[in-house]
Amino acid sequence: MKKTETLSRTTTPPLRVDLRLIAEMIKPGTRLLDIGCGEGELLGYLQKSKNVDGRGIELSMAGVRAAVAQGLSVIQGDADTDLQAYPTGAFDYVILSQTLQATRDPRGVVRNMLRIGRYAIVSFPNFGHWRVRLSLLLQGQMPTTPTLPHHWYDTPNIHLCTIRDFLLLCDDMNVIVEKAVSMDYQGTIRFDAGGRLANWLGEQAIFLLRRR
Length: 212
What we know:
There is one protein chain. By secondary structure, this protein is an alpha/beta fold. The protein has 9 helices and 8 strands. The chain has an 8-stranded mixed sheet with strand order 3-2-1-4-5-8-6-7, sandwiched between helices. The longest helix has 11 residues, at 106-116.
């Protein structure tokens, strides 16, 4: 019995590193909405570790079923269309992890996140990373990397951006960047994502935002 229990603990997958960094930005006991929550990995972790009042929306019905099977409050929904139904100020945090680049209207999604939440947390792969630039320069093809693994013809990403692009969007929207980190694929933090080198060396970035 003890051997079986030990095996179960060692085979439990750890929380994805970028999700762990997002979790560190969340205060205990708060209300949050996780957009594109998948099977509820982050949501379940936050409910257990920080006692949050968490909700989730997920486009994939398979993801919704898997999350609900864990006892999580998750419904099927689309970030582009369904955020408008939530009342202003409904949450303390609204999270969009590795999904912004797959939305049809990224600006509208960010606007709605900051309308319904006090803070918005957004993470995305950085199309300005040096490997991406080098691949385009030398091969003349849309690159594939650990953070951008799809080919141009089968990718769900329709609005790829760089860290610099996102900072310019925040400035244009008059949004305050409370915290920003860039990291490599393994999750090692490289630079403050507001710095110049982050756009070259960060494979992905996480931003904590609030409205003015």
